[in-house]
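Tokens for chain A. Residues wanted.
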């Protein structure tokens, strides 16, 4: 009798526990959890700052980041090793359709800010003004000056130069690749006759101590303004010249988010798109794309 009573109690407890057992949602949310993201290496300095401020604001989040080439970022997105990439282009229609076919939804993407490809030269170099034709001649090998890039394939800098300047023409033998943006600056320092192409995020932040150190031995070349009404206007990359279309090698910084619920990827994307994140881009001397920070003058009438 005692044994049968014990069995009844155990069964009753199991029934009660089954009724109260609800499925646990282990997914991350916009303000907590852990995810992995992939970021184009040319954007590393400003994204490091975004991550630092985001972590201070949301301490229950853990965003692991890999900095790699643009092509590797998209490869990570395709292989499900990341849900968020930050790169220099959005998705093509074919890519968006392929994701929708495999996932039943399209990833979302948009522009966070604008940076530029800077032409880095030694302070010892006398000529710091280039037309786009002169720059194209260097890249194609017509002018055999050494050109240093952050790799010879798969990077966003290489893709942009091929699409926008060379337009199908191959690189000359004088174009050499090194491992990453920091190595480009180092190569120009060690070879004053060379020029380097690097994302302005690496050399344009006047508040960054490392970049302040670069400016002791490098300059940013000025390129002709192709959209200016006046002739012979040359500009170096800056927040103003990017914003007003004066610098010809400006480019967008995109997010591509493969997340069909409001997770941590959505939370970080929203953070970069709203005021604090946009102010970080602005402070890094990039051009924010989501918010317009105009400076307005006003008069205060004294009573």
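Reply:
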């Amino acid at each position: 009798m005692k044994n049968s009573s014990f069995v009844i109690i155990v069964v009753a407890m199991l029934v009660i526990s089954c009724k109260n057992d609800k499925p646990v949602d282990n997914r991350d949310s916009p303000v907590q959890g852990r995810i992995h993201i992939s970021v184009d290496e040319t954007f590393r300095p400003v994204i490091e700052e975004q991550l630092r401020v985001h972590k201070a604001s949301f301490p229950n989040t853990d965003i692991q980041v890999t900095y790699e080439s643009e092509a590797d970022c998209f490869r990570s997105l395709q292989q499900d090793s990341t849900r968020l990439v930050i790169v220099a282009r959005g998705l093509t229609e074919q890519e968006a359709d392929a994701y929708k076919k495999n996932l039943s939804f399209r990833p979302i993407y948009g522009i966070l800010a604008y940076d530029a490809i800077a032409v880095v030269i030694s302070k010892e170099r006398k000529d710091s003004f280039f037309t786009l034709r002169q720059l194209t001649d260097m890249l194609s090998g017509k002018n055999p000056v050494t050109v240093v890039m952050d790799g010879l394939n798969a990077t966003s800098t290489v893709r942009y130069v091929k699409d926008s300047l060379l337009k199908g023409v191959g690189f000359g033998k004088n174009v050499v690749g090194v491992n990453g943006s920091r190595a480009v600056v180092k190569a120009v320092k060690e070879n004053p006759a060379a020029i380097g192409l690097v994302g302005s995020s690496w050399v344009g932040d006047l508040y960054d101590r490392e970049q302040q150190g670069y400016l002791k031995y490098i300059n940013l070349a000025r390129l002709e303004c192709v959209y200016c009404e006046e002739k012979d206007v040359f500009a170096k990359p800056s927040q103003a010249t990017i914003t007003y279309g004066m610098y010809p090698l400006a480019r967008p910084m995109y997010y591509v988010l493969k997340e069909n619920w409001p997770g941590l990827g959505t939370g970080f994307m929203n953070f970069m798109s709203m005021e604090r994140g946009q102010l970080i881009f602005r402070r890094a001397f990039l051009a924010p794309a989501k918010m317009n920070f105009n400076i307005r003058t006003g008069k205060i009438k004294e009573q």
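The chain has two domains: 33-113+252-288, 116-250. The CA atoms of residues 208 and 284 lie 8 Å apart.
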